[in-house]
Amino acid sequence: ALSRAAAARGVLGRWVVAGLALWIGFAALANQYVNGFTPIAKGYAAPVISEHDQLGQRLLRVIPNGAAVSSMDQLNPHLGDRARSYLFPYIDDASYVALDLTTNVNPGSPAEQYGVAMQLLRSRRWQILRADDGYLILRRTTSPLPALPALPAAFYRFAVGPDHGSAPPIASFGPDLQ
Fold this sequence. Notes:
Elements: H1 2-8, H2 11-35, H3 51-60, E1 69-71, H4 76-79, E2 85-87, E3 96-100, H5 110-122, E4 126-132, E5 135-140, H6 157-160
């Protein structure tokens, strides 16, 4: 309607429409600079792919492309392009479960996620395929495992941190806390 009204007014109307379009474009770019999250925003920092992220990409490759999988919200984009992909803790007929216990939990709480993961292991119907730096990849078994699966020490690397040997304490707060 605006373009028809501008055409009826001739060249001047067309300049008004062009000016409005430029103003709207400038306002959108200015807002993106001030409030946005794209590369043109002030303070923008490109996401960093950490060693933990790279490890996760390698570990997720053990899950076959066509397999049904239940995964946490953060891992779902890497596994969600399959016919049967579920958001953990919903498992349904999933053959695999993929968790990154170092990230935020959605949906639910960390305690709920932990509870469901431990329930799966206690059922002895889920085998640990990979467990490293907070990642846990499980595969459903057809028969119960002979023993309860145990998380290896490598799983806890995210919580322990690197070993720096026996460095002297930085500060002492009495005889019991350093």
